[in-house]
Design a protein that fits this description.
Blueprint: H1 2-10, E1 31-34, E2 40-43, H2 47-51, E3 55-58, H3 70-81, E4 85-89, H4 93-98, E5 106-107, H5 114-120, E6 125-126, E7 132-134, E8 138-141, H6 146-159, H7 161-170, H8 193-206, H9 215-221, H10 226-237, H11 241-259, H12 264-271, H13 276-287, H14 291-297
Parallel strand pairs: 3-4, 4-8, 5-6
Antiparallel strand pairs: 1-2, 7-8
Helix pairs in contact: 1-6, 6-7, 9-10, 11-12
Length: 302
């Protein structure tokens, strides 16, 4: 039920110039489908709808240790051969693996079942720590709430950062999370005053990307030593302060490139890179293209 709810909510019809998705749940046996919480879902579409879709997301199901029906595997392969983007959430990766779509590729699933996926499918390189793995036409996501990370990544990749950020705001979600599943395996960090101060500092940093933000300054605002701040930051986010800031600055640069006519030099200043050359180097490393080429790909012509 969680998986169905996540994709239905992310790809819901919204106004405000956002894409309008033609969303449907599909099954090999249309009708009432019982969910893990006991509530039935009325699924009207069959596999013909799946085989014709532009984006297919295999959702988790209770009996994932048993391969899906041959008709389901055939439909997944048909969609893939036709050029559809095929993804999976959580143990939905077992369906893609059974269809042979993960052979020779990296993939992820819920950390609890990563070892089982690797044992069952030795031709798959399982990245147990990743929130999602993008292999081009095949994208796999980790378990539970990481379905949001998967869907927002697909939105960012196919429709741009502005669309992903707008939908994330609508869902009251971060548009991008750094780190991997490992940050959730240990006991959670106890909630105390330090956590509240850390959250306040991160919110402040988002509003001051144009400034130099050394770790010492962030630690001072959090009323922590540099070492304690770095340790608490890693426990809470699964990332280092430097990596978190870099990702945040690049995401903001993407959004400004898509939605404004600001010169690249001004965008670099606003997001804290200081110069267009630094922004270009970081952007090429992340996106594989320079900022101006990225902007052209999102320029709409009448």
């Amino acid at each position: 039920m969680l998986g169905a709810g996540i994709v239905a909510e992310v790809f819901d019809v919204r106004g405000g110039g956002l894409p309008r998705f033609d969303f449907a749940l599909c099954t090999d046996r249309p009708g009432r489908v019982r969910t893990d919480v006991g509530l039935p879902l009325a699924v009207e579409s069959g596999l013909d709808r799946l085989a014709a879709a532009d984006l297919v997301i295999a959702l988790p199901w209770a009996d994932f240790r048993t391969p899906p029906a041959p008709a389901v595997l055939d439909a997944l392969n048909t969609a893939h051969r036709r050029g559809a983007l095929v993804a999976s959430h959580c143990v939905g990766a077992f369906a893609l693996a059974a269809a042979g779509l993960l052979d020779g590729r990296r993939a992820t699933t819920h950390w609890r079942f990563a070892e089982l996926l690797a044992e069952r499918h030795p031709d798959v390189t399982v990245s147990a720590d990743a929130l999602y793995v993008d292999e081009g036409q095949i994208v796999t996501g980790a378990g539970a709430a990481a379905g949001f990370d998967l869907c927002l990544h697909l939105l960012r990749r196919e429709w741009g950062a502005a669309t992903a950020n707008a939908i994330a705001r609508d869902l009251v979600l971060p548009s991008h999370r750094d780190g991997g599943q490992a940050q959730y395996l240990a006991a959670p960090v106890p909630k105390d005053g330090q956590d509240e101060r850390l959250a306040e500092v991160l919110a402040w940093a988002r509003e001051h990307l144009h400034e130099r933000l050394p770790v010492e300054e962030l630690a001072r605002r959090a009323l922590m030593s540099r070492r304690s701040f770095a340790r608490r930051f890693a426990a809470s986010t699964g990332s280092t302060p430097h990596a978190w800031l870099l990702s945040l600055r690049l995401s903001r640069a993407e959004e400004l490139l898509e939605t404004t006519d600001l010169p690249v030099e001004e965008i670099a200043r606003q997001v804290g890179f200081g110069s267009a050359s630094v922004l270009r180097a970081q952007f090429v490393r992340r996106r594989g293209v320079p900022p101006r080429s990225y902007r052209r790909s999102f320029t709409r012509t009448p």
